[in-house]
Design a protein that fits this description.
The protein is α+β, with helices and mostly antiparallel strands. The chain has a domain of 122 residues: Gcn5-related N-acetyltransferase (GNAT) (Aminopeptidase), CATH 3.40.630.30. 25% of the residues lie in helices and 34% in strands. The chain has an 8-stranded mixed beta sheet with strand order 1-2-3-4-5-6-8-7, with helices on both faces. α1 crosses α3. The radius of gyration is 16 Å and the shape is globular. The model has no long low-confidence stretch (mean pLDDT 94).
């Protein structure tokens, strides 16, 4: 899945590869307890300048990850993790956006744009997103981006010492199959 460095222009944003000069903006927008509240522990809080430098120095080139650029600055991120072996036609997506940009419909548009790109460019049949049940804003955003609730995984995640249920949302390649159960 390497080699996809496409820049995707959307309504009010650009999805583009991360660059070394994104470090200051990345750290500024990622260093927020609310931004990281439901993200993987790979996304640290506090998010330091060293964390930003380490992320940007890592293997982001050629991977299915993009900066979300608004007004010339990287203010969020979006990515997809392809499945392996018998799950190779599935990709899990993840995303985050700086709090200053919440509530504007930007993430819905970015997730929809990114998902459309993934399904057009790769052989994925299924995109998945796992959302903490305690994060209804993210669940609503996924529904507005064309994902459907497939199920609930009870007590499936722990974040900051709290055990939480997880909602599994999916978007399928085939519109006929992409409907709620």
């Amino acid at each position: 899945m390497s080699g996809d460095e496409a820049v995707l222009a959307g309504e009010g944003f650009v999805l583009r590869p991360w660059r070394a000069d994104d470090a200051v903006s990345l750290q500024r927008h990622a260093d927020d307890a609310e931004v990281s509240r439901f993200l993987s522990d790979r996304f640290p809080f506090p998010y330091t300048a060293a964390d930003a430098a380490a992320f940007l120095a890592g293997p982001v080139s050629g991977r299915l990850v993009r900066a979300i650029e608004i007004d010339g600055a990287a203010v969020g991120g979006i990515g997809a993790e392809p499945g392996h072996d018998i799950f190779r036609l599935t990709a899990s997506i993840g995303y985050w956006l700086g709090r200053a940009y919440w509530g504007r419909g930007l993430m819905r548009r970015a997730v929809d744009h990114w998902s459309t790109h993934l399904l057009a460019r790769y052989p994925f049949e299924r995109l998945e997103a796992r959302v903490a049940a305690a994060n209804p804003a993210s669940a609503r955003m996924l529904e507005h981006a064309g994902f459907h609730l497939e199920g609930r995984q009870r007590r499936a995640m722990v974040k900051r010492g709290e055990i939480l249920d997880v909602l599994v949302y999916v978007r399928l390649r085939s519109a006929q199959d992409d409907r709620p159960l």
